[in-house]
Amino acid sequence: MKREHFLKSVVYLKETDLYYERYFARKEKRGTLVFIHGFVSSSYSFRYLIPFLTKHYEVLCMDLPGFGRSGKQGKFCYSFQSYADLVISLMELLQLKNVTVVGHSMGGQVALYTARTKPSLISSIILLSSSGYLKRVKRRFIYASYFPFAKRAMRWWIAKRNVKQMFTQV
């Protein structure tokens, strides 16, 4: 009888259905990797990496709410912190500790929030094509974006600034 090395399931956490895939190490386990996908993506994006990594690592990947096979409920608050809380809840449910969190694109933000919220569960973070922490946009800029001339004003502001100065502030 062939032993199954993976589990695909949906669990109800934080008022939403969360789809996840858990792959067990085929040989001696060296650690656990938790993959968090980017915007407009899903756990499917990691499908080519998983066979290489499961030789020595347990791999957990999930579809964040609003993406892939996870729920798209209106009750869930779609924010980096809510996603991080959900990742933590899943790791605690599965009793995972000392994990390496791998975040791609927007998933990198979720990985950072996860580590900041519950550092005792995380041993390291790997960011793939991700930004660092994003500062919250000032309220006055959010309100200004609703004005009909906002697009034109933004072009003027960018053209006025020195491009070199803009790159040094990244």
Can you walk me through this structure?
There is one protein chain. The protein is α/β, with parallel strands linked by helices. It folds into two domains: 6-134, Rossmann fold (3-Layer(aba) Sandwich), CATH 3.40.50; 137-170, no CATH class. The protein contains six helices and six strands; from the N terminus they run E-E-E-H-E-H-E-H-E-H-H-H. It has helices at 50-53, 80-93, 106-117, 139-144, 150-160, 163-168, and strands at 6-13, 16-23, 31-36, 57-63, 99-104, 122-128. The protein has a six-stranded mixed sheet with strand order 1-2-4-3-5-6. Helix 2 (80-93) packs across helix 3 (106-117). The protein is elongated and about 60 Å long. The protein starts with 5 loop residues before the first strand and ends with a helix. The mean pLDDT is 89.
